[in-house]
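We emphasize that the prediction below concerns an isolated chain of 1304 residues; any contacts that depend on oligomerization or on bound cofactors are therefore not represented. The input was used exactly as deposited, without trimming of termini.
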Amino acid sequence: LRGLSAQSRFVSEEGRGGLIGGSKKKEGWNMDGSSMMSSNDNADSSSSSSCSSSSDGKFHFSIDRGGTFTDVYCLLPSKKDAVLKLLSVDPGNYSDAPTEGIRRILSEHDVDGTTSYPRNVPVCTKNIGSIRMGTTVATNALLERNGAKMALLITKGFRDLLEIGNQSRESIFDLSIASPSLLYERVVEIDERVMLSTFCDGSREGDDGGKEDGEGMAAAGIGPLSIGITGEEIMTLRQPNLSRIQSVLEELLDDGITSLSVVLMHSYSFPTHEESIGKLAESMGFSEVSLSSAVMPMVKMVSRGHTACAAAYLTPSIKQYLESFKRGFDDNLTRSGIRLDFMKSDGGLTPVDDFGGHQAILSGPAGGVIGYAKTSYHVKHEDESSTNDNNNNNNNNNNNNNNNNNNNNNNNNNNNNNNPKPMPVIGFDMGGTSTDVSRYDGSLEHVFETTTAGVSIQAPQLDINTVAAGGGSRLFLRNGLFVVGPESAGAHPGPVCYRKGGHLAVTDANLVLGRVIPEYFPSIFGEDESQPLDLESAKLAFQTIIVDQATQEEGAPTNQEKGNPTEEKSIEEIAYGFLQVANEAMCRPIRNLTQMKGFDITTHMLACFGGAGPQHACAMAKALGMTKVFVHRYGGVLSAYGLSMADAVKDISEPTAEVYEYGDNTRTHNHDCPLRSKRMEALAQKAIHALCQQGYTQDSIRLEYYLNMRYEGTDNAVMIMQPPQQQQQQSTTTTYGEAFRNHYKREFGFDLIGRDIRIDDLRIRAVVEGTTPKPAPPVPLLGAPPAIGSTRAYFEHGWEDVQVYKVESLEPGHEILGPCLIIQPISTVVLEIGCSAVVTADGDLDITVRPANDREEGTPVSHQPTTTIKADPVMLSIFAHRFMGIAEQMGRTLARTAISVNMKERLDFSCALFTKDGGLVANAPHIPVHLGAMQSAVTFQVEYWNQDGREGIREGDVLVSNHPQLAGGSHLPDITVITPVFYHSEIIFFVASRGHHADIGGIAPGSMPPHSKLLQEEGAMIVAFKLVKNGTFQEKGITDILMEPGKLEGNFGTRNLRDNLSDLRAQVAANNSGIKLLQHLVHEYTLPTVQAYMTYIQKNAEIAVRNMLKRYVQIHNTNQAHAVDHMDDGSPIELRITINESDGSALFDFTGTGPQVLGNHNAPPAVTYSAVIYSLRCLVGQDIPLNQGCLTPVSFIIPRYSLLNPSSDAGVVGGNVLTSQRVVDVVLKAFRACAASQGCMNNLTFGDDKFGYYETIAGGAGAGPGWMGKSGVHTHMTNTRITDPEILERRYPVLLRRFEIRKG
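Result of the prediction step, given as a token string:
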């Protein structure tokens, strides 16, 4: 509902706390679509900006130009402030929203009588002191692909590198593999090459280098040497020919391309070639030249290249907008003294001439992060609402006696040294189409590689997670599930209640439930733009869902098969159900942001802002177990307000390649390297100089020193800030290394003892601190305020008569109990049942929340036995989110705690939840070839250990297996770790993780031998073993198993036992994280309820597949489907499908498939099950829970000793990576879905006794009805990432000559 009340205008001329407590108030409607507020906001010295001061008699503007609305915050000459919200695009009234916002505030508040500010005339700037802006111009240009025409210049042999990217596909079940278009129009290959000389000994014989055009590449290991920026030795193999390049650049100019991105191999360390090309291009008249070595000098060519392209593509759009913006002022903003700064994605301000497109992706949301970080982090949440007798609860120790440290919460008012740390804060910014969540705990949290609209950006950015759920998110009923988004109703036509023939959306649900009151919103709807929100149409739309949508949605079950799941529900129950599902969708990224990094979510406060945020915050806090919510008085415009307090920042980094600390402790550590200190000081001086050039004084600049550190052999570098120096009397100080290890242990759960700690980058962040408001002092409690009326609103127990308050009538100290509604100028705060709010001295709302599961331990939510728990579509949707969220968090834990490149970087693993009998409940969409196979593994272990004479499965046991034919495995490198979940000494669920281990022995490094004929040649075989027994990790037992192949002649045990053991422990840790989350779910909902919905989730998937099979019969007028394809050796894979139209079941008969081969292309049955479940999920075409229900309607005939059901000793390593792809092609061919893929995962492996390399390489996807085929992407049964070319050459003794798409 962001901006729905944008027509309202509120002015408060007096009173601390802004809109709350002002003694003079006016209100009215502006018919041009804006709202204005002004107040005295903390008018003491703490409100002055580091870059501006209200004492200079000027107006200081902070503006957030969003996609729909533009928010303006202004610090007035009178030390008061004004806030304005207006439409970002309103061509009938103004050409530029920020300019118009400035004009309106000047017109309203510049009352000296000497200056006028008429429309359609450049704004007079004599009274403007500064302008700060956050903008979505770059983001919109990226999303809409309307940036500058540009060309990519890249090292020869890598023309398609950025198109291939990391080769994975975003949605594994999308057969069309939809992806955004490329940013560049042309690619120019630059015939140049350098290499790291790490593996060169200078004595190798040269080769012809694959000569092309008479020149070719110099022989590897021969060429002039130089020292790169990183300190690594660089060998130049070929210099760029600038005369040839000039000719190509002239052709680009002739074609109207004036923007270039230059991306050359290893330029992060050796930028010379890029710099020479850049100088040439600039001399020829190219207006934008982005060198990857200058934009972001960090290793990884793909990410650095995407970032340079983003800069070249987006910066011209920003410059074009800025020129247009400046023309709106009388001197084009060239008058001396007017600062024009922009917010970068990292949360820092930068001058307009240093603002690049790659820095602007999160420019708008970053302001909101600064806003809540500076206004909510210092809020105290001990019982301090009163300064007098109200502080009578354990507050008797508020004195200066420092010895009373055993009562830390009670004696911190006067003992400054013992003040408790403020609560960490989760920022919750809910807008119209999406919601942003972030975290703050005293310092801004940055990430250095993100993906936006298909483009990887390698630059410091605030760690902001976005989910496609907002006030305008559309509501659907699909396959019996309540679905919210990701589609949005947008501003036009908008929700149904906008009277524009729009779509049912979250806003309509809030309106129907009485949580939005039409009389407190402007009447701007309808043809004459004078009508209120349309409640009746919203109700009718929900009625339509009840009557029609369950049967009309494609793929939904019919009433005869399942019964309309909503037919017994009222309109309000339906609407409330959608709100619950929307809240759960927004809770999911918050859980990921905290729990996946090792933080306890219940210890955090939720700071909500954005127009729709306050309506949902209390309900979400209850669901998350959080006890505090903070709503700032300017929550609807917090991004603009945050800009006014932002720091000016200059961030400079430089790559390096050095060891900080040796793992073996036999060599001298490199903690205090003089050269590193010298380089850091040089970077610091550059940063200081840049800020001084902007007009800041050197003594106002604070420096932050960082090292980007990682363990040897891993790619997960962690940016470590220099630890603060301890007080002088303390004997020890924390080092970078200790800080790194502490961070690593917290986030990844373990420490890599014995590994070198390396430094990849040096970084300096120079900061001129902006203003930070003083914490609001405690206020006397005044009791309940007078309500302006009452209304009926719907909550968890149904309709409630609730009080309605207007924010203007609230005074500091007022206490408000929920349920109730608090009307703010641009949003509504919904105070849920069990919540209470106190108005702070600044006029903000400090809300205390009773969590939804706040009950006595062991007290169930429901006493219903399993047989009486009926399937509720709302709960079904919520449990679908929760089950999948648990599987996803298991995957994140595994990625964090694993050691090997295969699992940690390539993400070659899968995690899943199972019922107590082994039925798949939820499988996170990781690697498709694991999807159905893991259930076979779990089911086998349950049966195996419970057979007579065996010891069974006990609490504290963890099971492990990998045998493809006997134990439900896929191939030997994929090891499955299975953990039972106990409740009152009984197994209630299983969790499992399957990961690809880089080596488990066998005749070839990597355990993927191309020419194996028997299973024993492919590595260690595990049928059933207890990896953990009675809580003890069985290291000796599993080591013996992994080394067993070495007892055979010509065979070897595992070549990397250390990584095997570490990754197995990581899999155990991932399972344990799933157990904790499942146990929490059981405590929250009771065991019978969770078990019932596990069954219902499987049934839901089953019905979706049955309906898909029936539709096939109806569309093609046959219940038969048939396809056959052949392997390269001529072996057929044949499938005949017979569908029972009456119940939607099907027989998949693979009779006719060729016999097993004396090779390794045989595939165990579990692989065929995975291929079928993947294919069926793709064919359903909608987002359904992926579980065993998908295979329930399907029975199989797979002839024994065939290619798809080989003997227990047959080689199968190729069946998992090759034959699985061909099975999918055959299934999709039978259903006439699409053309075949390349039919293989394209495995590449090499190595010796010192190292092993294994990679799967992208291929091509087949075309289908309505889409073209896709090149350079992983297809079907795999979706692993590929090693970046620069990492490959840094880590292995190889030179990568070409990595491109084979044309034709």
